[in-house]
């Protein structure tokens, strides 16, 4: 008699399972610049999913093109000198974290965890900090706001961690431009 259980694949841990779902949610995004997905979890219960995109009923970037604005940001160069850097930002897109907060209840967010494919930007981090969540787990860093977001999350007492060594499901990760 053979052991039927010997051929079963290794069961994924909860972090990997929920991050996989965030990456699957990101496949719904029509943004040509970045696909981001987010999920809300309380304990081991999935309470909501979201992705980045245009508001409901509005042409998205794949249909109408990106609605880019130019901004200037002060950066420190390697030699310590400040330099002015020109950036482009799409203002048509609602971020995945923003959509997640719009379509979930505050009572569900209290003490819960958000899994998001990309480290939240400053604006999303501010919203998450006031949302009631106790933990934010992300896969890819977002260098623009990284240090100030980490500092704010620490100050708020929100666990903020990157999943080191995580590999998204095949076919779900969009190359970053």
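Sequence proposed for the structure above (177 residues):
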């Amino acid at each position: 008699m053979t052991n039927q259980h010997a051929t079963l694949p290794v069961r994924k841990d909860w972090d990997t399972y929920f991050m996989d779902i965030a990456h699957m949610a990101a496949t719904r995004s029509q943004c040509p610049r970045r696909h981001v997905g987010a999920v809300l979890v309380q304990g081991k219960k999935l309470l909501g999913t979201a992705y980045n995109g245009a508001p409901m009923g509005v042409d998205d970037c794949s249909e109408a093109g990106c609605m880019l604005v130019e901004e200037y940001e002060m950066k420190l160069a390697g030699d310590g000198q400040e330099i002015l850097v020109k950036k482009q930002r799409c203002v048509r897109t609602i971020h995945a974290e923003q959509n997640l907060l719009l379509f979930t209840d505050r009572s569900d967010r209290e003490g819960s965890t958000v899994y998001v494919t990309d480290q939240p930007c400053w604006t999303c981090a501010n919203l998450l900090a006031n949302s009631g969540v106790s933990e934010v787990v992300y896969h890819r860093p977002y260098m623009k706001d990284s240090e100030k977001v980490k500092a704010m999350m620490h100050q708020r007492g929100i666990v903020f961690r990157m999943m080191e060594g995580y590999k998204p499901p095949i076919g779900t990760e969009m190359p970053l431009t």
